[in-house]
Automatic annotation (TrEMBL):
Alphabetically ordered keywords of this record: Carbohydrate metabolism, Glycosidase, Hydrolase, Polysaccharide degradation, Signal, Xylan degradation
Domain CBM6: 324-449
PROSITE patterns for this protein: CBM6 (PS51175)
Record flagged with keyword Hydrolase: yes
GO biological process, alphabetically ordered: xylan catabolic process
CDD domains, per database record: CBM6_xylanase-like, GH43_AXH_like
Record site feature (Important for catalytic activity, responsible for pKa modulation of the active site Glu and correct orientation of both the proton donor and substrate), residues: 161
Protein name: Family 43 glycosylhydrolase
Matching InterPro entries: CBM6, Cellulose-bd_IV, Galactose-bd-like_sf, Glyco_hydro_43, Glyco_hydro_beta-prop_sf, Glycosyl_Hydrlase_43_Enz
GO molecular function: carbohydrate binding; hydrolase activity, hydrolyzing O-glycosyl compounds
Domain of life: Bacteria
Family: Belongs to the glycosyl hydrolase 43 family.
Keyword Signal: yes
């Protein structure tokens, strides 16, 4: 049984870390729950506009369901170091939103003529506007705001999950969902529909579809969307030669979560000649899938233009500087016996994870560690081993050059243990860490100096 009150209090104390840098692999935001990431490139920097899940408590949202009262925006220049720019829009500061509805669901943001347009769904306080969800806009001069909400939602839109797309000819479109997926042209002012909403009707008719995200590549319009084909949402896509279709269903770009997170919701963008899929999973809340966390993995196209299925990873993208804390628990590969991942503190999951080695020869592999050119001389492990342990660090595989052999003194507390390096190889390498001991040893992180 989860102690929700204690869990909520700890999560509030843990974050948010405004203006601070969060460095992580997957999930890549770990100071709060985040979901439904809409990623955009503005002025050479990546901005992510996610939903902000919180844990509903009596009087604060509907217990056991989604609860979202505001939006944060995060940005990064390298997809590894993320800055939380704080709150953009809050439910009780939007004139048309029911101020205690906790229904600030999946947003998106677009840029036109010097202004940023932040689209977000919520439930109106005036039910004559709409009884369910509708979509509003807030306008800002910078991608991080401040954003000023329009007094009323966009006329003619009923539903959730707005997605904005501006075509090469300058025509803007808005997509959204309400069981089906809808699309319409936007006026030049980006605040009103310029055409009647149209159902994008060539998509699967059985099973919920939501979370549309449309992008264009080489003249093909890709309409991507979560769809419940079986038990939970998987990510699928359809293509067309025009932004409002007709679309041809092409297939699945990410399978259902094997661990049962019911929703998935994504965006796709190209940044510095590489395509990426932003999506979510419930990594920081494995037993309650309405508290989600956003992730990021590389996405590739086949020569035919088909999207290659993305397999979720913990390692995520980008290089990790050897001088920073390397979170081995966001591994690339893990030995099938004797190695496992666990939360550092099950009462405060925002603390992250540890790698636990339970038997000799258990190993973990972490790819893409940038050692640089200048020789490094020591390695430090944050580690704990009740009976003491010996740990080996090698480069480029289990039989690769030995970097260090570290003796972990016995003790019940976490300790930072430093050891000299016996070798150094410049450049980017795979790091393999293994236990040489029968008794358990846990590692939080390793770093080199
Ligand atoms: O985040 C709330 C809802 O869950 C979103 O609007 C859907 O797309 C699903 O991710």
């Amino acid at each position: 049984m989860v102690n929700y009150r204690l869990f909520y209090l700890l999560s509030v104390l843990a974050g948010p870390l405004l203006g601070s840098t969060v460095r992580a692999q997957n999930p890549f935001i770990t100071n709060q729950f985040t979901a439904d990431p809409s990623a955009r490139v503005f002025n050479g920097r990546v901005y992510v506009y996610p939903s902000h899940d919180i844990l509903a408590t009596p009087g604060r949202g509907r217990v056991g369901w989604f609860a979202m009262e505001d939006y944060h925006v995060f940005s990064s220049a390298n997809l590894t170091d993320w800055t939380d720019h704080g709150v953009l829009v809050t439910q009780n500061k939007v004139p048309w939103v029911k101020p205690d509805s906790y229904s600030m669901w999946a947003p998106d943001c677009g840029y036109r003529n010097g202004k940023y347009y932040f689209y977000f769904p919520s439930t109106p306080r005036d039910t004559t506007i709409n009884k369910g969800f509708t979509v509003g806009v807030a306008v800002g001069d910078k991608p991080t705001g401040p954003f000023v909400p329009q007094p009323l939602p966009i006329k003619g839109v009923r539903g959730i999950d707005p997605n904005v797309f501006i075509d090469k000819d300058g025509q803007a479109y808005l997509y959204w969902s309400q069981g089906n997926i809808y699309g319409a042209k936007l006026k030049e002012n980006m605040l009103e529909l310029a055409s009647e909403p149209q159902t994008l009707g060539e998509l699967p008719t059985k099973g919920l579809k939501e979370g549309p995200y449309l992008f264009e590549r080489n003249g093909t319009y890709y309409l991507t969307y979560p769809h419940v084909a079986n038990k939970t949402e998987r990510l699928e896509y359809a293509t067309s030669t025009s932004p409002l279709g007709p679309f041809t269903v092409q297939g699945v770009l990410m399978d259902e979560s094997p661990t049962g997170c019911w929703t998935n919701h994504h965006s796709i963008l190209e940044f510095e000649n590489q395509w990426y899929l932003f999506y979510h999973h419930n990594d920081l809340s494995p037993s309650f899938d309405k508290n989600r966390s956003i992730r990021l993995d590389s996405l590739f196209f086949e020569p035919t233009g088909a999207i290659r299925k993305v397999v979720p990873t913990l390692r995520g993208v980008g290089l990790t500087d050897a001088r920073q804390k390397i979170q081995l628990d966001r591994y690339s590969r893990l030995s099938s016996h004797g190695a496992s991942i666990a939360f550092l503190d099950t009462l405060n999951k925002f603390q992250g994870w540890k790698t636990v080695f339970a038997s000799p020869q258990a190993w973990v592999q972490y790819n893409g560690v940038a050692f640089g050119k200048q020789a490094l001389r020591t390695v430090t492990l944050r580690t704990q081993a009740a009976a003491g342990a010996t740990v080996q660090l090698r480069l480029d595989g289990a039989t690769g050059p030995l970097l260090a052999q570290v003796t972990v003194p016995k003790g019940s507390q976490w300790q930072e243990v430093k050891a000299p390096l016996t070798a150094f190889k410049p450049g980017t390498h795979t790091l393999v860490v293994s236990s040489q001991t029968n008794s358990p040893v846990a590692i939080d992180w390793v770093k080199f100096e």
